[in-house]
Design a protein that fits this description.
Immunoglobulin-like, globular, 5-stranded antiparallel β-sheet, 326 residues, C8orf32 fold, 5-stranded mixed β-sheet, alpha+beta
Length: 326
C-alpha cells in the first residue's frame, strides 16, 4: 500500500519567546515491510536541522530557533510503501515459554522487559489483572495469551480523547476506563512485561478505516505494541482497534514507552504560555511515486514559486561537504 502522510505541529505562544530547542521523532522507519520513499521537514521560523540515531536506532531530528518568535510550525511530509505482515499461526507450542526464559532472549531484550516510565506495574494495574483473570497466562501459549490480552484491553477501555494527557500515569486510564492509543499501549506493555514477554512501544501513523471498525482518531498520530516471541521475532498488536499490525500501520519509532519517542519534544526560553495544535492526514497516494529514495530536510522544497525559501536537502548538504573535503 502506497501512503502519504502530512503531520503538522504548531506551538503558539501568548507572547514572544527568545529561543526554542526541539527534537522530532517523525521520520517513518525503513524495514522489510515498510519502504520509506521520501521524507521532508519544513520549519517556520526557519532553522538549521541536524539528525542522529538514538539508542533504539530511531532517526531523530533536532534544531534550535535562536530568534524571538511567537509561533513555531513543524510540517512533516512522508511517502511510504507498506506491505501486509505474514499471517500468524493459530498458536505456538508451550515450549515458547521456556524459550522466553532463556538468558539470551532476556539479555537481548533487557530494556523491553523492565517497567519504565508510564508502563509500570501499580496496585491499580494488579487489581485490573485480577479483575480480568490475567494472572495465569501460562495456561495458554504466549501468542494466544497476547492475542487475548489485546482483546481484553480493547473491550475494557473506551476510546475518548481529552480524558488523559500525554504525561498521564497509567492509573488514570485504569480509573476512568477511557483514554487514547498511548494509554492502551502502556497497559498492554506493563502486563506483557509482568508475564515475562518482551514488549516495546511503537509510535507512528494509521491509515484509519472507520467502516472497518477502527475507533482511533484519523487526525492524530497512533501507537501500538510489539512483542518478542522467539519463534516469530517481533509481532505487532494494536489494542486500540483490536487488530494485528499490517499495511495500514506506519511505524516511526520504537521505545520503552511514550516518553522515549514522542513525535516532538523541546524547551523554550521565556515566560509565555504555550498552546499545542496537531493535525495528521494519512491517505493513499494519488499517483505512483517514482523518485529515488532519499531524505529531504528543508525549510521549503526546491523549485517553488518566487518569495518561497529554497530547499536545503540532506542529499545536497552531503554533496557540499564532500566537495569541501576534496
Amino acid at each position: 500500500m502506497l501512503l502519504e502522510v502530512r503531520h503538522v505541529t504548531q506551538y503558539q505562544y501568548d507572547e514572544p519567546v527568545r529561543e526554542s530547542v526541539m527534537e522530532l521523532w517523525m521520520q517513518p522507519q525503513k524495514g522489510a515491510r515498510q519502504r520509506l520513499i521520501s521524507f521532508e521537514l519544513e520549519l517556520d521560523p526557519a532553522a538549521q536541522l541536524f539528525s542522529y540515531a538514538d539508542a533504539f536506532g530511531n532517526a531523530v531530528y533536532h534544531f534550535d530557533v535562536p530568534l524571538a518568535h511567537d509561533r513555531l510550525t513543524i510540517t512533516a511530509r512522508s511517502a511510504v510503501e507498506t506491505q501486509a505482515s505474514p499471517a500468524l499461526p493459530a498458536a505456538l507450542d508451550p515450549g515458547e515459554w521456556d524459550r522466553l526464559r532463556s538468558d539470551f532472549v532476556r539479555g537481548e531484550n533487557f530494556d523491553f522487559l523492565r517497567p519504565h516510565g508510564f508502563a509500570v506495574e501499580t496496585p491499580a494495574l494488579r487489581a485490573f489483572i485480577a479483575e480480568k483473570d490475567l494472572a495465569g497466562p501460562r495456561a495458554r501459549d504466549p501468542l494466544t495469551a497476547v492475542k487475548e490480552l489485546a482483546l481484553c484491553v480493547y473491550e475494557s477501555f473506551g476510546y475518548e480523547a481529552g480524558v488523559t494527557r500525554a504525561d498521564s500515569p497509567i492509573d488514570e486510564v485504569l480509573k476512568s476506563r477511557k483514554g487514547v492509543c498511548q494509554d492502551f499501549a502502556h497497559v498492554m506493555l506493563a502486563i506483557c512485561r509482568a508475564w515475562g514477554i518482551p514488549a516495546r512501544y511503537v509510535s507512528g501513523y494509521l491509515f484509519t478505516d472507520r467502516k472497518g471498525g477502527d475507533r482511533s482518531d484519523p487526525d492524530a498520530t497512533h501507537a501500538w505494541v510489539e512483542v518478542f516471541l522467539p519463534s516469530l521475532r517481533w509481532v505487532g498488536f494494536d489494542p486500540t482497534n483490536n487488530t494485528e499490525t499490517g499495511e495500514r500501520h506506519i511505524a516511526c519509532a520504537i521505545g520503552r514507552d511514550y516518553s522515549d519517542v514522542p513525535p516532538s519534544r523541546g524547551v523554550y526560553k521565556g515566560e509565555a504560555e504555550s498552546l499545542l495544535a496537531v493535525g495528521v492526514t494519512v491517505r493513499r497516494a494519488r499517483a505512483a511515486i517514482t523518485e529515488p529514495e532519499f531524505l529531504r530536510t528543508a525549510q521549503a522544497a526546491a523549485g517553488r514559486v518566487a518569495n518561497r525559501r529554497p530547499a536545503n536537502s540532506l542529499y545536497a548538504e552531503q554533496q557540499r561537504q564532500q566537495q569541501q573535503q576534496q
